[in-house]
Known about the structure:
401 residues, alpha/beta, 18 helices, 40% helix
Amino acid sequence: xxxxxxIRVLEVAMYGFVPAAGAVLAxxxxxxxKVEHAVTGDPQRGLRQIGALVVEGEPNPNVDNAxxxxxxxxxxxxxxxxxxxxxxxxxxxxxFLTSFLPEARTKFGMDVSDIRAINPTIIYxxxxxxxxxxxxxxxxxxxxxxxxxxxxxxxxxxxxxIDGMISLPGPAxxxxxxxxxxxxxxxxxxxxxxxTGEPSxxxxxxxxxxxxxxxxxxxxxxxxxxxxxxxxANANRSPNNPLVGLYPTxxxxxxxxxMMQPTKFWADVCRxxxxxxxxxxxxxxxxxxxxxxxxxxxxILAEAMATRTLVEWSVRFSTLxxxxxxxxxxxxxxxxVQVRANEYLVQSGDLELVANPVQFDMTAPNAGPAPKFxxxxxxxxxxxxxxxxxxxxxxTLGAVT
Length: 401
């Protein structure tokens, strides 16, 4: 049994952020029904190209990543008959999940007061770009704008000599993080409702999630009233600790050392890198002396690292006590032994997708495939008690797909 078995979530949302929350809730056991426009569906279904990468045919990871394990109904909420179907879905749901802006929520009669009039105990969860208050509460946005640029990540990570900014690492980077935050809020609200009987209104924004992700940096810089400026693009090591930084291997791969207490790990690193004579060298015996001789130490380690390949160092460093890691691209991550051992990638239909990061009882989530557009429309309408004459009439009116 999964933690959210028996919980019904009604998702009226588009693109990546809020649907990602629905995907997490589905992997935690909830039954998630996705409402899509009766004709055009979720615009995310049309996203086929990311940079130079193009997806042809089905499946489309750009859709499946945020919509795994759901059911889809095509619904036109702009006409009364479509709204009646929506109301039927609301009556039987535990959670209403939406990304629609305030104006659209009012237009389609699905703001908090509208939904609560139909189901007084439903949990109402909304994801926004900039939060529910303030002068920009009505504005939309994406993870590039609200999460990455506005929340400080882009400016902090971009070295001063680079014009413009370094972009986020890939599609839906801020969406998935924000979606997981929203799913966590829904889970907490479900527990609160069980304890108190009171339903909650939950808000998570891309801006708020981005500020949270940058929280340490924002708090630190705000306290000191100084910016944290990124190191130059080619500065891969700490200026005062040779055990923090990147070192190239013989096969042009990189290993990252992050050993914040250099005196604790220096001797062990020397032994693992065939530098036993430097383990007790007084130049590297104290934090002060290591800092004073950091450049010399880094050069010694760089020359040693360049003598073996990443695979060779990985074997040697398997017993290294200090934290280290290979620098990997996404293809290499997908084959990482730890990623595979912990089932961080799971099968979802014909795709392998990254599972949400929460596991219960050391069990990977079961990620069902994403639905095709409006795939379960008839099935869902029948569950609402509609007969085929009524369903055909709704189709004729264009209320459902």
